[in-house]
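Hi support team,

I'm filing this because I wasn't sure whether my run with adenosine-5'-diphosphate finished correctly. The job status page said complete, but I'd like someone to confirm that the output block is well-formed before I use it downstream. Pasting the exact inputs I used:
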Amino acid sequence: MIKLVNVTKKYGNNSLALENVELSIDKGEFVFLVGKSGAGKSTLLKLLTRQEKPTEGQIMVGGKSIVRLSNKEVPLYRRKIGVVFQDFLLLEDRTVFENVAFALEATGTSPKEVKKIVPQVLQKVGLAKKTNSFPNQLSGGEQQRVGIARAIVNRPEIIIADEPTGNLDPKTSKEIMRLLSDINERGTTILMATHDIEVVAYMRKRIIALKNGQVFRDIDKGGYED
Ligand code: ADP
Ligand code: ADP
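And here is everything the job wrote out:
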């Protein structure tokens, strides 16, 4: 599903963020991306969302190179990917329903379909009762559920989550991880960058560790120690 071949990313002339990165993630995998601040995690995620282009190397997603996509092709490509953020990034002046509907409308879904799909997805993330609430009326965990609903509503093949539990307490983090796990078990590939060693330890999924822009370890299941 995701393949990086000899990927190097430099910012400007001397800031080397990623160096000769090789990795391959199969469809349906759940993968943690770990590493200290500055290791290159955000850069890797930005290459996959095509916010950045590699300086060298090849990136394949779903069997197609994304390196040479034209600006016109990028929006269609991005529909394959749902993104979940640490600080949720919800529209504060819109309701839960509207936040999720907005993502569907952006892909040209008809109002009739939007009315049908949004309640189904809110049900799925456990927020059916909060449909008409505004983000500031929700707990952190509930806000992240809205973020996840928004990420899955267009049925992406891949979810990229950047520190999704970074602002949540351990119990709420566990609930959010259970939800991401459910989504993964239905076939969505998940790549999650995190500093949360506790989450990584109990999930027992594949761990890719970056260090100074290189893949430093790639471990099959759990058992992470720095
Ligand atoms: P992480 O997400 O693991 O903290 P980053 O991908 O943000 O790592 O950063 C990797 C390296 O690239 C760091 O040395 C960082 O300073 C550098 N870097 C990241 N973004 C930029 C940028 N826009 N311009 C210059 N250097 C950058
Ligand atoms: P099922 O697999 O039986 O359809 P799900 O729990 O996957 O059950 O889905 C419940 C409802 O939500 C279904 O009607 C499904 O079409 C809808 N649904 C599930 N996931 C999504 C999604 N990512 N986007 C839109 N609708 C979804």
